[in-house]
Amino acid sequence: MSSRNNKSPNESETQATRSCPICGKPQVQTFRPFCSKRCADVDLHRWLSGAYVVAGESNSQKPEDSDETAED
Question: Region Disordered: start and end of each range (predicted)?
């Protein structure tokens, strides 16, 4: 039996043509999904500075409420 590659023929082409989410240049395997360390660092800075936010419920519970329930 011949071994089969699980990737579709177009999948390898798609990976080669994907662009950097920061600047739009072709991505480089070393810094994937970015094109350079600079773009990777820009993305990291955006996460750390709060420019990117993952949506979710806010925690409106007061800290003292959680202490009271822990004692019961």
Answer: 1-22, 52-72
Question: Which domains, and CATH codes, for the chain?
Answer: 13-53 (3.30.50.10)
Is residue 39 marked as binding? Answer: yes
Q: How do the pLDDT tens digits run along the chain, 72 residues long? A: 555 555 545 444 445 579 999 999 999 999 999 999 999 999 999 999 999 988 888 776 666 655 555 555
Is 35 known as a binding-site position? yes
Listing DSSP states for 2-68 in one string gives ----SS-HHHHHHHHH-B-TTT-SBP-GGGTTSSSHHHHHHHHHHHHHTSS----------HHHHHH
